[in-house]
């Protein structure tokens, strides 16, 4: 059912079908009810744009969507999709209804530090840039892997907030100053900020 819905959602994303037409087509071709079909399209489009979404499917469908986007649209779309999924987890946590442990595990598994994950993607992309560009003041790391360089800590926080959500400036400042090492419950677990230019 998800595979059929995904193919239709791709047509909506490509502008070949409207959302309304896509919803009806998913219902007709897969038997998914129109409410769920509409939600499927909304979630897929949100993932493609890296935007938060408020309704979710089961973990198996989420895993299917993320891996399919990676396969069909490449690394940058995959990173945006992971960002959207993380924003959904953060949104759900803000409702104080518990946590999406299994959902978070999927994100963590796919994110990883390989060439297909957040850290690996930015590490590969920026190794060349670091060799060519002037030294910037701060470097951000995840589990010891370099992600990106920034002129200011505010720019670092904004960049990371766009990926994992939240308000991160204060936490990153404390990490930089050696005042705090985030534990596994923290959104900033595994992150390090290094000062490249000593004043």
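^ structure tokens above, recovered residues below v
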């Amino acid at each position: 059912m998800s595979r059929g819905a995904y193919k239709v959602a791709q047509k909506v994303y490509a502008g070949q079908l409207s959302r309304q037409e896509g919803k009806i087509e998913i219902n007709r071709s897969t038997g998914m009810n129109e409410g769920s079909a509409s939600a499927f399209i909304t979630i897929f489009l949100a993932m493609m744009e890296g935007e938060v979404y408020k309704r979710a499917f089961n973990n198996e469908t989420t895993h299917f969507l993320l891996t399919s986007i990676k396969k069909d649209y490449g690394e940058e779309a995959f990173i945006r999709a992971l960002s959207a999924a993380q924003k959904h987890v953060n949104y759900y946590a803000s409702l104080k209804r518990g946590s999406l442990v299994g959902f978070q595990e999927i994100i963590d598994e796919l994110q990883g530090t390989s060439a297909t994950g957040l850290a690996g993607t930015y590490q590969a992309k920026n190794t060349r840039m670091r060799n060519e560009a002037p030294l910037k003041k701060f470097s951000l790391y995840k589990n010891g892997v370099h992600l990106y360089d920034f002129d200011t800590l505010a720019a670092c926080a904004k960049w990371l907030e766009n990926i994992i959500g939240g308000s991160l400036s204060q936490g990153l400042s404390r990490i930089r100053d050696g005042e705090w090492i985030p534990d596994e419950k923290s959104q900033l677990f595994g992150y390090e900020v290094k000062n490249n230019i000593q004043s």
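Strands lie at 138-142, 145-150, 191-195.
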